[in-house]
Amino acid sequence: MVKMTVKQQRFADEYIRLGEITQAAINAGYNSKSAYKTGSENLRKPLIKSYIDERMEELKKESIAEQDEVLQYLTSVMRGEVKDEALLVVGDGDFGSSVERHQKRADTMARTKAAELLGKRYALFTDKHQVDGDLGISVVVDYGDDDGS
């Protein structure tokens, strides 16, 4: 099984971090005069390319909240488990004051908004729609034959 060299690994990691071929190659220890060419060649190598693709997918997954995480967060806000930090200015005497940090439960508006979002997700609320229009109904009454029988 072929493995990347240490330099190739450094290049791939730097490329992921910077998104720029030349500087990634230089940071990895390649010659600055041929850094772009060497970096471009590295990006065409299947082993390095697949490593970069896998790492990018991992980083994407780490940085984007999944559905369960969002629902858990909204639930904790709704229940008042999430604490907001508030700054409070306290007077210490004649002309002095200090700022103190205090933790407080999420306010009612934030909790209500979280409950609304959860309710929408689980379709707990139904919107009623009033539809108006002229249907143009005509009624025809048929009393039978006109011959009197």
UniProtKB/TrEMBL annotation:
| Protein's organism | Planococcus dechangensis
* NADP among keywords: no
The entry's keywords: Viral genome packaging, Viral release from host cell
> Does the keyword field hold Lipid biosynthesis?
no
Among the Pfam families in the record, one is Terminase_2
Gene3D superfamilies from the UniProt entry: 6.10.140.2160, Terminase, small subunit, N-terminal DNA-binding domain, HTH motif
This protein's superkingdom?
Answer: Bacteria
State what protein this is by name: Terminase small subunit
